[in-house]
Structure formats: structure tokens, C-alpha cells
Amino acid sequence: MSNDTTPTIHIRRSQLGRAQGLGAAKSGVHHWWAQRVTAVALLPLSLYFVYSVLALAGASRAEMAGFMAEPWNAVLYLCLIAALFYHLALGLQVVVEDYVSNEATRIATNLALKGVIVFCALACAVSVLKLAF
Amino acid sequence: MKDVREALMVGRNTEGKLVRRPLSPHLQIYKPQMSSATSIFHRISGCALGAGTLLLTLWLVAAASGDDAFSIVQAFLASWIGIVILIGFTLALFYHFCNGIRHLAWDAGKGFELPDMHRTGWTVLVATIILTAAFWVVGFLVW
């Protein structure tokens, strides 16, 4: 080991890889950005959700169907479902990646969560459409 | 050196001598701070809301399924345990909403100074309580 104190850094990544900026996950800042986009979308949509819950407090099934039969309500609910479950999938993925150190368990947990989330999102969307039509 | 993590603990001091790097204290040593507490509560409330989406799914699917299923879900939500769950759900929702705005401001590069961070942190906590209380006051009025 020489006594030269000037640090040198050897970059093993190719110049093309650096220029693309996609990192080890091959997706760059897509996950981070999608989390922010859905967060911004959820600001008005979650306020709408709070309004809708108060409007439907104690409602009968017929009243709820009548509410969803209004096109704006059905569309806003579909937007909410899309943004909410996407945001949830991104958030839970990071939590699992942070706390589950075993790779096989981590991948299995994330796949299972993604599956449950897609299932619930579709169940919500189909239910809203069934109430609406 | 036993494993690769040990290798990361080795560094050089200013004289070029190999030394073992200092380890930061464990979590329970730290005094709870506004920054760390609001951060972990953001994550906890996010996970709680994730569980809450199961309730949302149950509610919508029951409404689409039929009167019997819907009346069972409505009765559960109106029971005392349902109310407790819903209060927890609204607390998590309003906290995640308010602190989420704080995170988006940080993403825009604003509010990093410590006095700002403490002020916005307290604002989030107070706003969460006020919004949750207001929701339930309105909720019981319109029920």
C-alpha cells in the first residue's frame, strides 16, 4: 500500500451505463417518481374520499348504488382506486425491502403483496362499476 | 475478518493506520426526536392504511354483492369495534395526508431548516387531531 493520500475512484460502470442513469435496478428513479405522482394525485382524491364516506355514512345499498350511478362519482372512485393501490404497492415494496433481509423471503413477500393488491384493486373497481351500471 | 460486513467496518485514520470504524448507537439509545418520530409514524400509518384498504375493498364488494352482505358489513362498521377501527383508520389517513404534504415540500427542497422542521412537525400533529375530530363530529351529525 503506497502512502499516497490522494484518493482515486475506479468506476466499473460503463460510460453508457452512467449516461443512462438507470442504476442497479434498471429502472432509475421511476419508483421514486411514481410514488410522488400518485401522492400528488391522492391529495385531492383522498379529500374526495373523505367527503364520499361522510355522504354515504349509514346509507342503504340503494343509496350507495345511486351515488355511484353519478358518472363523476364512479370516475373519481376509479381514479382513487388506481392511485391508491399503486401508491400502496410502491410503499409496501420499500418497507419489505428495508426489513426483510433474506432474499427469497423478500421476493416471495413482495410478489404475494403485489398479487393481493392487484386482486383488491380489481375487486374495488369491478364493484364500483357494478354499482354504477 | 469473519464476513464481508466486517470488511466494511475497517477504515484508515489520518495517519494511514488501519482502524475499526466506530459504530453508531443502537436505536433505543436515541431520544425520540420530531424528525425520527414523524418519519416512522409516516411508515406505520402507511402500513395501517394498507390494512385499511382491505376494509375499503370489503365495503365496496359487499355493496356490489347484495343487501345481505352489505348489511353485515354496515353492522360491523357501526359496532364499537368497527368504530374503533374506523377512528384508527381516519387518524392514520389524516396523519399520512398531512405528513405527506411535508414530504412533498422536502422533495421540492423546502423546509429543511431545523426550526422549520419542528414547526411543520407540530403542525402535522395538531392538524391530524383537528381533522380527525372534525371528521367524527360531522360524521355523527350526518349519520
Your description of this structure?
Chain A has five helices and no strands. In chain A, helix 3 packs across helix 5 and helix 4 packs antiparallel against helix 5. The longest helix of chain A is centred in the C-terminal third of the chain and has 30 residues. Chain B has 143 residues and is mainly alpha-helical. Chain B has one domain: Fumarate reductase/succinate dehydrogenase, transmembrane subunit (3 helical TM bundles of succinate and fumarate reductases, Up-down Bundle), CATH 1.20.1300.10. A two-stranded antiparallel ribbon of chain B has the order 1-2. In chain B, a hairpin with a 5-residue loop joins strand 1 and strand 2. In chain B, helix 3 crosses helix 4 and helix 4 runs antiparallel to helix 5. Chain B is elongated.
Topology:
The complex is a heterodimer of chains A (133) and B (143).
Chain A: H1 15-20, H2 30-55, H3 61-69, H4 71-99, H5 103-132
Helix pairs in contact in A: 2-4, 3-5, 4-5
Chain B: H1 4-7, E1 10-12, E2 18-20, H2 34-65, H3 67-78, H4 80-107, H5 114-142
Antiparallel strand pairs in B: 1-2
User: How much helical structure, as a percent, in the residues of chain A?
Assistant: over 70%
Order of helices and strands of chain B: HEEHHHH
CATH superfamily of chain B: Fumarate reductase/succinate dehydrogenase, transmembrane subunit
Strand content of chain B: under 5%
Distance between the termini of chain A: 76 Å
CATH topology of chain A: 3 helical TM bundles of succinate and fumarate reductases
CATH class of chain A: Mainly Alpha
Based on the structure given, which CATH architecture of chain B is correct? Up-down Bundle
Q: Helix segment count of chain A?
A: 5
Task: Write a concise keyword list for the protein shown above.
heterodimer, A: about 130 residues, mainly alpha, 3 helical TM bundles of succinate and fumarate reductases, 5 helices, about 0% strand, B: about 140 residues, two-stranded antiparallel ribbon, about 75% helix
